[in-house]
Design brief:
The complex is a heterodimer. By secondary structure, chain A is mainly β. Chain A contains no helices and eleven strands. The chains are: A mainly beta, B mainly beta.
């Protein structure tokens, strides 16, 4: 089955700096890669996703890149703000009737004011 | 449009009792997924259902756990004879029918936090 590895496990950044989280996956058939943000005691919230037919996607301060050859994808948060502090999870799925998400272990991001 | 709803939000059971967790998907969504999250860990897939069908239960423990998504009403995750190791947050997610998206954007409910004493 799919194995998603995520690092770092914790990340502390100064407000205004950038944060980068990296994930690798093992199943070459995976073609959908969402990122979720989870605040303490809350539900995971989809913040951005990328499909295998594109290499990069951006939404305001958040961007995601995908390298299918190397089987890795990354989340970039620019101009970090205190409200970006949360746990971020990457995930992967095959789509095409195999929709289950395989999640990374999560990255705890702390933005220092 | 209400989001994914789960109840109860918190559930306390003693060892050996049964736990029933309910999930109502977003309006118009026909796919339901259950995930389990242990403290300070990621989410682990348990089961994927469509109305009246279990599509993939590869993540479900073979014993004591079952899930259903009836034609009417919410999806139910049932844990029989709970043990302390079942203590976790159980999240339900839903996604729209395949025809509307060839990829499955999954939207999560608030979760049920199960504590087994």
């Amino acid at each position: 089955g799919e194995n998603v590895e995520q690092h770092p496990s914790t990340l502390s950044v100064q407000e205004g700096d950038s944060a980068v989280i990296k994930c690798t996956y093992s199943d070459s058939a995976s073609n959908y890669f969402p990122w979720y943000k989870q605040e303490l005691g809350k539900r995971p919230q989809l913040i951005i996703d990328i499909r295998s037919n594109v290499g990069e996607k951006k939404d305001q301060r958040i961007a995601v890149t995908l390298n299918k050859t190397a089987k890795h994808f990354s989340l970039h948060i620019t101009e970090t703000q205190p409200e970006d502090s949360a746990v971020y999870f990457c995930a992967a799925s095959r789509g095409s009737n195999d929709y289950k998400l395989s999640f990374g272990a999560g990255t705890t991001v702390t933005v220092r004011a | 449009n209400a989001g994914v709803m789960q109840n109860p939000r918190h559930l306390v059971r003693r060892r050996g009792q049964e736990a029933r967790l309910r999930c109502s998907p977003m309006k118009g969504h026909s796919h339901v997924y259950w995930y389990r999250q242990l403290p300070e860990e990621g989410l682990k897939f348990m089961v994927y259902l469509q109305k009246e069908n279990i599509i993939d239960e590869s993540g479900m423990p073979k014993e004591r756990f079952s899930a259903e998504f009836p034609k009417e009403g919410p999806s139910i995750l049932r844990i029989q004879q709970v043990v302390r190791g079942d203590s976790a947050a159980y999240f339900c997610a839903s996604s729209p029918p395949v025809g509307e998206s060839s990829y499955n954007e999954q939207f999560f409910g608030p979760g049920t936090r199960l504590t087994v004493l």
